[in-house]
User: What shape does this take?
Amino acid sequence: MKTKLSLILIGVLLIVGCTKSATELLDRSQKSLDENQVELAINDLESLLREYPTDSLASLAQYKLATIHKNWKNDPHSAFDALQKTVKNYLGSIQAEQAQKELNTFSEWIINKSEVLRKQKLIKESIQHLIYMVEKFPTNVLAPKAQYLIGDIYMNDLRDFETAVKQYRKIVDNHSGSKQEPHAQFMIGYIYANALNDFDKARFEYNEFLKRFPKHELSPSVKFEIEFLGKDINEIPTLKHITS
Assistant: This one.
């Protein structure tokens, strides 16, 4: 009987000894972040929230999760979710106030973050942020810009012209009246004319542009493109000097 009690006591002491306090978990998560051990940091913060949900450090732990998903994991979905939990579960805290500010400007942050990722050549992550933007906030004023940037990335970074056309087409179909719509219509014609060499489709798309946006600043360029579709540069008087 004594042996059994001793074993139980040892087990309890081991459990107590292995349990980390909220402060220890928070400190360890920061140390893991400093060493680029992101998953370990996330695990410790989630443990803190699970084991000490009412602790004064819980709001900070929840907000730090949002920061990690934004800046280390490049995961806008999880970042948005963590910010919402910070506001909902820790209303009145400094972290909740800051989280609400970030939620209010989340669409702007996505656009800026995608551009940073693009400059860092993290093209997949950049596109993922923009796709999240147009799917999560389809009626946001920045949604057409996000969609246009997706087309631009496929056009200029990935050189995937067929996909670029499809992405630009989404602006014409889903964001009629936006500032990006005429530019997207122009780019569809431009890709057909200068990248895919499909001059019939290029002429059709350019004529659509002129029909819908006759007074747009790009109209002279469209008319020029139509006039010289498929012609060699030496056949274009205004450009002939470039090769002479």
